[in-house]
Automatic annotation (TrEMBL):
GO terms for biological process: carbohydrate transport. It comes from Natrarchaeobius chitinivorans. It is a peripheral membrane protein. The keyword Disulfide bond does not apply. Transmembrane segments: none annotated. InterPro entries: AAA+_ATPase, ABC_transporter-like_ATP-bd, ABC_transporter-like_CS, ABC_transpr_MalK-like, ABC_transpr_MalK/UgpC-like, Mo/tungstate-bd_C_term_dom, NA-bd_OB-fold, P-loop_NTPase. This is ABC-type D-xylose/L-arabinose transporter.
Amino acid sequence: MENVSKYFDDGETVANYRLNLEVEEGEFLVFLGPSGCGKTTALRLIAGLEEPSEGAIYFDGQRVDRWSPSDRNVAMVFQNYALYPHMSVAENVAYPLKIQGVPPDDRDQRIEEVLRFLHIEAQASKSPAELSGGQRQRVALARAIVREPSVFLLDEPLSNLDAKLRQEMRSELKRLQDELEITTIYVTHNQEEAMSMADRVVVMNRGTIRQIAPPEELYSRPRTEWVARFIGSPPMNLLRGTRQNGSIAFGEAGSVDIGETTVGGLETVPRGDVSLGVRPEDISIATERPASTTAIAGTVDTVEPLGEYTVVNVAVGDQIVNAKVPTTSVERDDPVYLTFDDADAYLYDENGELLT
């Protein structure tokens, strides 16, 4: 995609703006973002279901943005599966091959292979109404795979499934993609899906790409405050402060003494307004002031036990900081001190950009 934009309502509504992206052959790429950010429109542009208002789309070096969907050899799986209710499972899977004019013998062989591959051969004669949600999802995948597409497009395909089945299907989809080696572009607003399945994640907001990176890099090095707040559960804490001499001051909550240390890997920290970012799991809580120079005073606001860990929400001035700790005995209104390692901190400038 080169500078691809999509406008609706005669230019009044911007769905996508200047998208620049290259997807490698065989890659599993995920568009991730909140509802209405433009990720589904981007997928529809690749599929040919929408035409770009500006820019160009290429497959293997050939410009395709004026081609029909049938000429692009893409297969798309929708959120609602879009199965034909009057056809059996086998007939649903066979339909795209009939349209392509595949001979009956070849067609039957390919259908048998893909149904077996997806473990739904026993449902071949059933109608979609007789299937569970997970089985209907597999039929939709089979109908897409049987075409042997060059690009596989999936638009929030697991959102209608319950949590347990969604987790099972995530693993199944990743296995399918690894074995078939089909270039796959997947749309979701679910961070777990994106981070567990993708080779790279494209984070979108308000129609624009905010960051493209492998999951590990996206989590460990978010380039903007917006991405830092969006990725992670709970998300990264961002404390707005002011760089003064050898410290960052946070008003009544005190300051962090950074001197000439390398906070966030920085050799020097600029003066003025900055945001100090720390992941909740990198924060420790103490009930007495520790010797550490990175101790920030606060008051416990709420405590959320979540089984394997506890989230403690601490009021630091007019800001709330989330700490993710194994166990704790603190309670609401307890005075506490937050500490963290300098190496685990991030610094963002007044425009929300990561300082590097």
